[in-house]
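Let's see one such:

===
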Amino acid sequence: MSKIIRIGTRDSELALWQANAVKNQLEALGHQTTLVPVKSTGDIVLDKPLYELGVTGIFTKTLDVAMLNGDIDIAVHSMKDVPTALPKGIVQAAVLKRANYLDILAYNDNEEFLGGRDAIIATGSLRRKAQWLNRYPTHTVVDLRGNINSRMQKLNDNDWNGAIFAAAGLDRIGLEHENTIGLTWMVPAPAQGAIMVVALENDEYVLEACAQMNHEATEICTGLEREFLRILEGGCTAPIGALAYINKEEEVKLKGVLLSLDGKKRLEAEFAEPLGKHQNMARDCANSILARGGKRLMGEILNSSTKTTIFSTKKLTQNQRLQFKDDLHVASEDFIKTSPTRIPLKELKTEIQNVVLTSKNAVEALLTNISANELKFKNIYCVGRKTKRLVENRIGKVTHFERNAKKLAEHLVEFMDGTEVTYFCSNIRLDDFPKIMKDNNIVVHEIETYRTKLTPIEIEDSVEGVLFFSPSGVESYLQKNKANKIAYCIGETTAKAARVHFQEVKVAKIPDVSGVIDLVNEHFKIANS
């Protein structure tokens, strides 16, 4: 029985191109399809933790979870981004014919720098950086992250000599640069240029439909490259390249390479076998490298990469830590600790027309003083969806909520009944809210519901980015640390406090912990596309 095949996709230009390529092939084969945009993982409800499902790859996680939830039938990925171990219940359904697998150098002005001692090259890939430095040891390699379009724009806006991209990614979205060179000497990422389709292992109709798209030669070659990667235990944390191809004599050739992070050490191996006798090539290639110093080199890379790169000023749960991209080393600690304040019951048992709660801490502290059924709140206004859910679960219906305190104040000025509000807050509270209210002749009765204590610690120099969830967190951090990191902020109010001190401040699209983690992952995404 036929059915409409739901193709899950993210909304990036490259992801949409790849999803539409699969859609067109399936429809040409007579199948009905539809594209299904998939939200971030933080918005998807799970009945099992991600680690129990084996969902780890940050590039593919969102679509994997949607598939396991039954929201989509297939997912389309850049094959080089797919972890070598797929989640339980998900299998490779097809590999499309490989496009250009080369890395290319897009450069400004002219090529003379290739023969010179000094040059600046941009890339976010450990593999590309190591191979470039191995060939040009006196050059400087700077970090370059973001989607293809933003990376190309950064090349145009900076005085770098050049930047490295995957040819396939540029070709697919029609992005051109005036000056490019194909880096034929650079070994690509395993499976670079290939598109993988995955599906549920028990969906026979979809698996049969996808099998019609499968390109056998690409499947064989990328399978060898990924097996080589798996045996070396590389993933994104080590500079590993691999390329397999089948020549006219139906001979399979495989080249693999492992480098140190600085490019000074390079180990490579090449094997060739007749097609049909190629099954052990990846193992032989990987073992050859491991036996010639590769095991020691992988240990050195692992030790150098275990330094903390991200620090959260709020203690993270195990599930939250697992949401980070695989090669990010994350540490966390509470830079703010709270304790409830004793509030006279007389203040709480009187009827209050307009109540404002801007945090979960305020709700929980309030309920340590009085039971919910004793409260006589007529209108409850709050900040944030999680605070709203907590209020409605524990106290009663929320009249209105906004994403931040400033927007809530603006709403109340426009629509609130009466000219007074009771604001349950901390001893360290936001200035925006009461100021906006008072500026509009609304009386604010502040009741200190909990006390906030700053508990900063000194963090490692290796940390590149810090997660902030409140202005108080920013204040606490600065008591023992310098503002020389990237500040990842949960919302605009926190970002405003961070911008006073930090040069680079980023704000989550969705104001919750998962939103901040997604923000970090997007920024640290290895620029291989």
Summary: The chain has five domains: 1-97+190-213, 103-182, 215-304, 310-335+455-524, 337-454. The mean pLDDT is 89. Residues 281-305 form the longest helix (25 residues). The first strand starts at residue 5 and ends at 9.
